[in-house]
Amino acid sequence: MTKKAFILAGFIVLKFLLQYILISSEYDLQRDEYLHLDLGHHLAWGYLSVPPFTSWISRIIYLLGNTVFWIKFFPALFGALTIFVVWKAIEELKGNLFALILGATCVLFSALLRLNTLYQPNSFDVLSWTILYFIIIKYFNTENLKWLFAAAIIFALGFLNKYNIAFLLLGLIPAIFLTQQRKVFAQKELYIAALLGLLFIAPNLLWQYNNDFPIVHHLNELADTQLVNVDRFDFLKSQLLFFIGSLFVIISALYALLFYQPFKKYRTFFWAFLFTLIIFMYFKAKDYYAIGLYPIYISFGSVFLANVLQDGWKKYLQPIAVAIPVIIFIPIFNIAFPNKSPEYIIEHSDKYEALGMLRWEDGKDHLLPQDYADMLGWQELARKVDSIYIKVPNAGQTLILCDNYGQAGAINYYTKEGIKAVSFNADYVNWFNLDTEYINVIRVINYEEKDHEYKETSRYFESAVVVDSITNQYAREFKTTIFLFTKTKVDINKIIKSEIEEVKNYN
Fold it and tell me: Which domain holds residue 272?
């Protein structure tokens, strides 16, 4: 093994180790992770929540045992591969060993450590952005047309994982027009490659068409409920924080792309950076949507700084440059990860508030960061539903109906009874088993709706009782209530079908 390969392997091993120790055992999986895992049991070319790529990974996780180790392995893997691609990009840009170490250090000790703790499409999204930019570098260097086809394939995979990669294309196309690289638009192979990419994503587009484009409804709902609370200044502030330890490297990259002669043929990347950020801000996107933009710029910045700091006294600044991301990460380690108890976070809330971590999607500050609150109470819920289910007469004819996808997914993941909870929320609306004739309902409902639920539903059953609730006061689901309705007086299946139709018509 060469010295470079040995060092790269060290970064990869450290990446995996960090991802497994940055989450305290006090926390469960996060709300979204349960939904993503359940996708693996319902393979399709599209979903209301995400494109199909996540379901493929979830099926692999299920086949490997469906344990927390494997759930956390894949986002860690995608993060490790991001480091690898940045390493290869630096090599492509003729960077030396110092540039390689600086680039890998900057990517390792960044917001990716936080992003890669969760099993969500975001980790592969960042990887796909980085690979696609790397392929563009390869094409600019070689003008070998095979890289156009490689770009089409990677874009398609990224698109099938998260539609967010479309922002990359929206920022890149006008940037190419502004530089000498615009000659690529005269290559017929570009359009053949584009058709190839379209062919790969066609099954998902067809699914969207056949289901009346739920992505449009999802985006409208997102804009009305979450993006409306996005402040563009806060968006820019977050961009500085995501890679704060390597900010000097990214700024160096932008300078080099504009003024450093050896990078002249890569000037497209300077304009792509600006255009992409402007488009994100115009659409009031969530701040983390832009994380995939930065790793490749760390490659440019690392190579430029390696060239600047190689002569005379400047070479003594190299260890300092590598140390900066590590030193800045040390205090962040105690704040930016779910490795502290809820009690600790509340006691030191001023630190979290200063970084905006207590701000939820509703635009308000809460006791815990939203992701952390979404990682509490789930095992308690599943355990209590299990204990109710085993005592219900004719348990096999009992519907477990939840208020949201987090509740349904958590019950399905942790249950010991093999039951399958559903909801009219998200993709669960398509997963009802209507072959069973239901006579009982275990209803999991948010606390604010419990009185209304009891009044509306109890009249359809001979017995209605509040059985239990989530007691973890730090959980986002605190006080979520569990009802048991038994011995129906009506045809539950008919009501379910009517509700499903109404939800789908609304969507």
Answer: 3-333
